[in-house]
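Researcher: Here's the sequence for the chain we discussed earlier.
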Amino acid sequence: MAQAQATHNTITLKGSTKIVTEFFAYAVNSILYQRGIYPPDNFEQRKQYGLSIMVSTDTGLTDYLSTVLEQMSDWLVRGELQKMVLVITSSETKETLERWTFDLQTDKSVVDGRSAPEKSDKEITSEIQAIIRQITASVTFLPLLNDACTFDLLVYTDAASSVPTEWEDSDPRFIQNAADVKLRSFTTKVHKVDALVSYRADDD
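Model: Thanks. This is the structure I predict for it:
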């Protein structure tokens, strides 16, 4: 029984990659819903992490996210992904209004096959749950987005990473006069994700 428990808690590189990729998918969907980037009737409720999370039913959006996340998963398993940033921009002024940053640290010893860390599924789920709850609560502290907005995903990788030809270079899309709110983090012991949201502070 003790041996079975130990096996269950061992986090593999592929297993961690799946957990992180899935988290990114739900986090992006949740942000887009909570910040009103797409109409509410374009989302449906799904149970995940013991929570009800709104997930897009828009075919164009789901296809786009699937393509991006598939590439990110490839970088994750190679230990090359550094950061994902969801940028919310005013459609009218093109000004960056919010930046949701997810910094990633990878234990290179796992990528190299030199270690196999252990952590329970329950602990990981609890940590992810806390971040999703903060995203859901973000409407209570983030300024109202009065403009119609669009979003982009910026992905940062190691300099030596192979990047698909259809991907474009982008500037960091920083916010003028930004205020930051640090969110929770979670770790699989292979990958650690730190979350932060930056928004345009009032000029006064």
